[in-house]
Design goal:
The complex is a heterodimer of chains A (420) and B (365). By secondary structure, chain A is an alpha/beta fold. Chain A is built from 18 helices and 14 strands. A six-stranded parallel beta sheet of chain A has the order 3-2-1-4-5-8, with helices on both faces. In chain A, strands 9-10-11 form a three-stranded antiparallel beta sheet, with helices on one face. Chain A has a two-stranded antiparallel sheet with strand order 6-7. In chain A, strand 2, helix 2 and strand 3 form a beta-alpha-beta unit. In chain A, helix 1 crosses helix 7 and helix 7 packs across helix 8. With 365 residues, chain B is α/β, with parallel strands linked by helices. In chain B, a hairpin with a 2-residue loop joins strand 7 and strand 8. In chain B, helix 1 packs across helix 6 and helix 6 packs across helix 7. The longest helix of chain B has 20 residues. The two termini of chain B are 14 Å apart. In chain B, 51% of the residues are buried. Classes of the chains: A alpha/beta (420), B alpha/beta (365). Chains A and B meet through helix 1, helix 2, helix 6, helix 7 and strand 8 of A and helix 2, helix 5, helix 6, strand 6 and helix 7 of B. Strand 14 of chain A pairs antiparallel with strand 6 of chain B.
Chain lengths: 420, 365
């Protein structure tokens, strides 16, 4: 058995990052996730000008199947490539929904209705279907029609009042953080709905907003604002209580990339950890009256940072992290991909999973952070090719005849490659 | 459904929060002797633990451990974010063993195995080691970690997902779920890993702009900051928003590559045309008039005052033990066709009563 969700069927219309991340989590736990994709969903039939992109293996013959980012997000899923704008495609989709447990999409608020495939239509063929919609600002409310991308949603959460180098130097994450948050939230929403359906026999329409998912990561600040008169402060890498805390430079090479990446995070949450750090350094910092208490250390944080930076600059970041951790000082080297992918911890735990086959060269992908009864990653499959399971699903699940399937292919309703 | 949570961190608490919002009975075991040290800690306590039953227990003491064991025996899910060393001392795998259907969930910084198993780790340590910190901040300065508890809360979500999956499976057996928070961070990489594996490029930070698209960037305005997310499809509309439709075909700006090459010149135009607006004005203009993804840097006061969030019933009103009420963010998802995840009236404090909800009705049916 591949996981506890074996036997659960989810029809997946999601795209980009958030939605596919959510359905990936459930596919990793054994759910049968059927991606319903448009033929243009993975780009064109030819390589983009200059061949720019991140390609898994050789993309020359079928670039749409070699996009590494897509493949990272869509392992363990099946693909049906369907023209939902055609009446025949719509009928196939409704047949898929008939025996499914859930449908999930992350289009703009009006998209599914314009296709005639909104919840009110789907519930006619499956009265207990779970339908999860995840537009940026929800399906109702004064700004539910706002165009949402992760970076612009991020500013609307309050995070920008916390993140940066100082009061006049706010920063964004520059990584569409709300997508990563709402993807996991989507998986939680689906699981909540599935459990509810099992207990009560009810499906339902689930509204999930990227905006609110991201605010939930900062909920205590919303509460704190009401409890105190203090306004939010951008502290850089400092903590409002722990001191010292910061990101400090380490010894590095002269290459630009190395210099940029040679840093270590260090924090002392109490006097014990502070004493431990001082002992490692061996300069008697803990008996310096400027640093005798947490309050004092906060007041003299600039002095501390200068001293610590002088110490850390003499060490390789990995060696220093290991030294400090061995002495009970919380520390984490700021790692880049070649470092954290080769790190002893992830290697020991077999965290990264190689996925591919004879036609798409296998590469390591991030695995699941969840182990159940000591196992994970069993029976994992690479991401599907576009439309790879058209015939298997239409014949095996829906009982379509070969003649009917051929008719759909000839009519362009089913496809396995982008249109030229 | 009954959830029992314990530990010193916040990950298990967030998992319990999600179950509580969906109507489950959540019993929180506070570590005896641990106090809320300041207003920030109290705020987090209200946010995570409103509407839970709570007891204080020294579960490291044999008598306390026996109480924990008894509680676990009555639960559907036992979730913890205690350290591996403490779990060893508690004989974690035997807790609640009288319950043949118990799902035990551990959330630890590095997992229960491996050379870092007993290392100290929480959000900023794990963000650094997991590749996130490298991506945030300016290229010529130290990187920035994320404030708050992104790692812990995401791990809590994974815990809720995995334990719910096992509850759904309902095979009559006990199960153990192990979650590594470092691996949570790694699982949420955007394209950092594949960029290295496939292109041998190291993804790093680039301030408030994106490395391969422009303008996707934050700019100052009259009362704060705003961000426009102009992927190529929005460029025509954005030129109208700027009042500079001539830029649509200007050789310095007509394509994304050209805009990247002439980033500074374009930013000067954007600042000149839009910096005089307020955040609310530029956001409304961008979104409503021109359909360009735009967002203003809201404060938490703005979030609380949002008409949109109020209309969506996002906040729950929590009564405080000391008197007064606070608005607490509710669930990010809700059933729109009937009972919502935000229907429960929560209260702060020990020995709270569970709110009436569908789950109760199902248990008593």
């Amino acid at each position: 058995m591949r996981g506890p969700l074996e036997g659960i069927r989810i029809i997946d219309l999601t795209h980009v990052w958030a939605g596919p991340l959510g359905t990936r989590i459930l596919a990793d736990l054994g759910a049968e996730v059927i991606k319903v994709e448009a033929s243009s969903g993975r780009g064109g039939a030819t390589l983009p000008p200059g061949g720019a992109g991140i390609w898994q293996g050789n993309p020359n013959t079928e670039p749409w199947n070699h996009q590494a980012l897509f493949n990272k997000l869509n392992r363990n899923k099946q693909s049906v490539c369907l023209d939902l704008k055609s009446e025949a495609g719509r009928d196939v989709f409704l047949d898929l929904v008939r025996d499914a447990d859930a449908v999930i999409e992350n289009f703009s608020a009006r998209a599914m209705k314009s296709l005639g495939l909104n919840y009110e239509e789907l519930v006619k063929v499956n009265p207990v279907i779970i339908y999860v919609a995840m537009p940026g600002y929800g399906t109702y409310g004064p700004i539910s029609d706002y165009v949402a991308f992760g970076p612009s949603v991020e500013l609307m959460t309050g995070l920008t009042t916390l993140l940066g180098y100082g009061r006049d130097e706010p920063r964004t994450t520059s990584m569409a953080l709300p997508d990563a948050i709402s993807g996991v939230t989507a998986a939680a929403a689906l699981m909540t709905a599935l459990v509810r359906k099992r207990r009560l026999g009810k499906g339902g329409f689930v509204d999930l907003a990227l905006h609110e998912s991201a605010i939930n990561m900062l909920g205590e600040y919303v509460v704190a604002h009401q409890l105190t008169d203090a306004t939010t402060v951008i502290r850089g890498n400092r903590h409002q209580r722990y001191a010292p805390q910061g990101i400090y430079p380490c010894k590095g090479g002269t290459q630009e990339q190395e210099a940029r990446s040679n840093y270590i995070f260090i924090s002392c949450r109490d006097d014990n950890e502070w004493h431990a750090l001082s002992e490692v350094v061996g300069e008697g910092w803990h008996v310096d009256s400027r640093f005798s208490s947490e309050t004092q250390r906060r007041q003299h944080h600039d002095d501390l940072d200068q001293l610590i930076s002088g110490f850390t600059a003499g060490f390789d970041k990995i060696e220093l992290m290991e030294l400090l951790q061995s002495r009970g000082v919380p520390a984490g080297a700021v790692m880049v991909a070649p470092e954290f992918m080769a790190d002893a911890q992830v290697i020991e735990r077999n965290y990264f999973v190689e996925l591919g086959d004879e036609s798409i060269a296998a590469i390591p992908f991030p695995g699941s952070p969840v182990r159940i009864d000591g196992t994970r990653h069993e029976g994992w499959k690479r991401a599907p090719r576009l439309g790879e399971h058209n015939e298997e699903i239409l014949s095996g699940l829906l009982g379509y005849s070969q003649e009917k399937i051929k008719g759909l292919i000839d009519a362009g309703v089913l496809a396995s490659r982008p249109r030229e | 459904m009954r959830i029992v949570e314990f530990g010193a961190n916040v990950a298990a608490g967030y998992c319990g929060r999600l179950f509580s919002l969906s109507g489950a009975e959540v019993c929180r075991i506070d570590d005896a002797g641990v106090e809320l040290t300041d207003a920030a800690a109290r705020a987090q306590d209200i946010y995570l633990h409103s509407d839970k039953r709570r007891i204080s227990l020294d579960y490291r003491h044999p008598a306390g451990r026996a109480v924990l064991d008894d509680l676990a025996a009555t639960a559907d899910v036992l979730v913890t974010d205690e350290s591996p060393a403490t779990l060893d001392a508690l004989d974690w795998v035997s807790l609640g063993q009288a319950n043949p259907r118990l799902v035990r969930v551990s959330i630890t910084p590095f997992g229960l195995s491996g050379p870092y198993r007993d290392w100290s780790g929480w959000g900023p340590v794990l963000l650094a080691m997991g590749g996130y910190t490298e991506l945030i901040g300016d290229p010529d300065r130290e990187p920035l970690s994320l404030p708050g508890n992104f790692v812990e809360y995401q791990a809590g979500q994974y815990a809720c997902i995995a334990s719910s999956a096992l509850l759904l499976k309902d095979d009559g057996q006990s199960h153990d779920v192990e979650i590594s928070m470092l691996e949570v961070v790694l699982s949420l990489s955007q394209f950092t890993t594949v960029l290295w594996t496939c292109n041998h490029e190291v993804r790093s930070r680039h301030g408030n702009v994106w490395s391969n698209l422009h303008p996707v960037a934050m700019y100052p305005c009259r009362d704060g900051w705003f961000l426009v997310n102009v992927v190529p499809g929005f460029w025509p509309a954005f030129t109208k928003m700027l009042g500079r439709e001539d830029l649509l075909t200007h050789p310095d700006f007509a394509t994304n590559q050209a805009r990247l090459k002439n980033r500074q010149a374009l930013d000067d135009i954007i600042r000149e045309r839009l910096s005089g607006y307020s955040m609310a004005e530029v956001t409304e203009m961008g979104q409503r008039q021109f359909r360009v993804p735009t967002g203003g840097a809201m404060s938490f006061a703005d979030v609380l005052a949002s008409d949109h969030l109020a209309a969506r019933g996002y906040f729950r009103s929590v009564q405080l033990e000391a008197g007064g009420r606070v608005a607490v963010p509710g669930s990010a998802f809700r059933f729109v066709d009937g009972a919502g995840a935000n229907d429960n009236p929560p209260r702060e404090g020990h020995w709270q009563y569970p709110a009436a909800n569908e789950a109760d009705d199902a248990r008593t049916a």
